[in-house]
Write a structure and sequence with these properties.
Layout lengths: L1 E4 L1 H8 L7 H8 L4 E5 H12 L8 H11 L3 E3 L3 H9 L7 H13 L2 E3 L12 E2 L1
Helix pairs in contact: 3-4, 5-6
Length: 127
């Protein structure tokens, strides 16, 4: 099994947020599954840091440290992911979430997300 973590999940894991469900925590702690973070999530964090919608002590380097310290793997954005974005129905306007959905579908991954709009897509989710 392979999980793709939504951006907020990475941030919540790092701060041990009470917003994480038990199912999400169990999935993240399961050493038998691969856990990925999309490069798109790092891009989203970089933009939010630059516009001051997000603050991380240590900036983007801190986000990369969170990924590395938790043993998450980086998922690059591939052409197929972008092609799938063009075919997604308009359930969600956030371009980063749309790219995560398309990437999870293309890579046959389960998307770990608290976003209530994501299950409207034909993607496997866990929360």
């Amino acid at each position: 099994m392979k999980y793709l973590l939504d951006t907020h999940v990475v941030l919540w894991i790092a701060e041990n947020s009470p917003l994480l469900t038990d199912r999400a925590k169990t999935a993240v702690l399961d050493d038998s599954v691969e856990k990925y973070v999309s490069v798109a999530s790092a891009w989203e964090v970089a933009i939010k840091l630059g516009t001051r919608k997000l603050y991380l002590d240590g900036g983007l380097s801190e986000f990369f440290r969170m990924i590395d310290d938790n043993g998450f793997l980086a998922l690059p954005v591939e052409r197929e992911h972008l092609q799938r974005v063009t075919r997604l129905p308009p359930h969600h306007k956030d371009p980063f979430d749309r790219l995560l959905v398309a990437s999870a579908i293309a890579e046959n991954m389960t998307l770990l997300t608290a976003d209530e709009n994501i299950p409207m897509y034909d993607v496997t989710c866990l929360w």
